[in-house]
Amino acid sequence: MAAGAPVIGLGRGGLLDSVRCAAAGRPYPTGVLFPEQTVASVAQAVAWFEERQLWQQLTPEVVRLCAEQFRPEAFASRFETALRQAWQQHQQACAVAASDPVELLEFRS
Predict the structure, then answer these.
(1) φ and ψ at residue 48, rounded to 5 degrees
(2) pTM beyond 0.70
């Protein structure tokens, strides 16, 4: 995908996150995923890809742009943003309102 080539791969693991399957009707598809790790499943996926001439529809630019979101720098940036947001939410949940001890004594009276 990083070179702009569509993927034909087993629909498990990381490919489920990174490949937008044309057979599933995903917008801006980047390839085709097959369901089973068998010769028949691979052959069927390749035949489906060829019958529809998907190499003409899956533009290298779209495929490459999709792959770029998985660059280490892009991942690090998204991870840092998520971590900062989680830390901020944690801090807000743990925050204790500052109070004047004199006010606490007056409240008890």
Answers:
(1) -60, -45
(2) no
Q: Has residue 109 been placed in a domain?
A: no
Read off the pLDDT of residues 38-94 as tens digits, 9 standing for 90 and up: 999 999 999 999 999 998 889 999 999 999 988 999 999 999 999 999 999 988 887
Q: How far apart are the first and last CA of the chain?
A: 71
Q: Look up the domain containing 77 and give its range.
A: 7-94
Residue 3: how many CA atoms within 13 Å on its side-chain side?
2
Tokens of 26: 């995903």
- 107 falls within a domain: no
The span from the CA of 72 to the CA of 11, in Å, is: 23
- The one-letter code for the residue type at 23 is A
Whether 68 is in a domain gets the answer: yes
